[in-house]
């Protein structure tokens, strides 16, 4: 399978192969942010070390962001900017390896610890997406498995993932409280101590016809929370009130979206966020999403405390492992995976 990077570097490439032509509905075009309703910004330092009043207010703002957007920008998160930059450079170095070197990390099964490839699922995709990807499953109960090339990439990424796990834990405590639950409710209900992390490094090379291609189609993520950073080249768009909104990241911030398991656990109070990646003709975009999920064997169902006569359980319970397989073995299509576990009465 030819990678997008190799294709983009083909001499004299002026158009994309028909396999990459993605038909976008004209009504589906992106709009810029509405200044009347800006993307929420959450300050983690206020959640973790603010005064009681600041903390209470920040929890309310976080709950509103989860309810209204399912998405927010996270600042003052404590992860050093130099470390974020080092991981991005490691990703760049990985994708700069030869095609033969990268093939060593190809992987076949969705539970393989390391998989490298292109598009989303080339065995299923009717249209290929303009994206190369490195996916790594990180299980804290197992040894840290990671590509050994380029030099230093493994070490800087290991420390980075540990830091992200702590940031996610603090956010999930605050989200628990915003739902009226005990601070450690989500952590215990999802067995977060053994929770799976998914390291997804994306490379979107310049595309000669960006209006015809798509980096990733509209979809929601399968875990609890995804924390994403990018190399300063925009391309993420999030859906809000039926419109597409361009996300312009604040320097040294994370783009955080609510994922499907959190929608299930909150009994639909917080909706997982639908987003997509668009491409451009001028610069290579690199992004890194760290998905933070439950442990693979944990059954995720709505919190009983959030059920009532008026709001019965809106989703059936399912093991996280089975839910992941459901998403990974189908085409990406909005929230079609979540629709399969809705409890229709």
From TrEMBL:
Source superkingdom: Eukaryota
Domain Fe2OG dioxygenase, first and last residues per copy: 194-294
Pfam families xrefs: 2OG-FeII_Oxy, DIOX_N
Ribosomal protein recorded as keyword: no
Keyword annotations from UniProtKB, A to Z: Iron, Metal-binding, Oxidoreductase, Vitamin C
Keyword check for Oxidoreductase: yes
GO molecular function: L-ascorbic acid binding; metal ion binding; oxidoreductase activity
Family designation: Belongs to the iron/ascorbate-dependent oxidoreductase family.
Protein name: Fe2OG dioxygenase domain-containing protein
Species per Swiss-Prot/TrEMBL record: Juglans regia (English walnut)
């Amino acid at each position: 399978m030819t990678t997008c990077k190799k294709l983009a570097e083909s001499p004299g490439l002026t158009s994309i192969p028909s396999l990459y032509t993605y038909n976008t509905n004209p009504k589906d075009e992106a709009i810029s942010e509405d200044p009347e309703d800006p993307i929420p910004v959450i300050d983690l330092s206020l959640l973790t070390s603010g005064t009681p009043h600041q903390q209470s207010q920040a929890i309310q703002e976080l709950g509103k962001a989860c309810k209204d957007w399912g998405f927010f920008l996270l600042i003052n998160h404590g992860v050093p900017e130099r470390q974020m930059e080092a991981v991005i450079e490691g990703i760049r170095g990985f994708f700069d390896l030869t095609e033969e070197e990268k093939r060593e990390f190809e992987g076949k099964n969705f539970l393989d610890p390391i998989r490298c490839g292109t598009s989303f699922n080339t065995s299923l995709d009717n249209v290929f997406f303009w994206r190369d990807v490195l996916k790594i499953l990180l299980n804290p109960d197992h040894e840290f498995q990671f590509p050994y090339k380029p030099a230093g990439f493994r070490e800087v990424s290991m420390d980075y993932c540990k830091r992200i796990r702590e940031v996610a834990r603090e956010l999930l405590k605050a989200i628990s409280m915003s739902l009226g639950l005990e601070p450690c409710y989500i952590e215990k209900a999802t067995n977060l101590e053994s929770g799976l992390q998914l390291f997804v490094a994306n490379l979107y090379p310049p595309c000669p016809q960006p209006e015809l291609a798509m980096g990733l189609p509209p979809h929601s993520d399968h875990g609890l929370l995804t924390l994403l950073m990018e190399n300063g080249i925009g391309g993420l768009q999030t859906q809000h009130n039926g419109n597409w909104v361009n996300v312009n990241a604040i320097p040294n911030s994370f783009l955080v979206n609510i994922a499907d398991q959190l929608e299930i656990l909150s009994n639909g109070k917080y909706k997982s966020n639908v987003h997509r990646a668009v491409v451009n003709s001028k610069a290579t975009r690199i992004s890194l999403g760290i998905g933070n999920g439950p442990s693979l064997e944990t059954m995720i169902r709505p919190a009983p405390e959030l059920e009532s006569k008026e709001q019965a359980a809106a989703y059936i319970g399912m093991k996280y492992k089975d839910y992941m397989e459901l998403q990974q073995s189908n085409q990406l299509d909005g929230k079609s995976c979540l629709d399969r576990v809705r409890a229709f009465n």
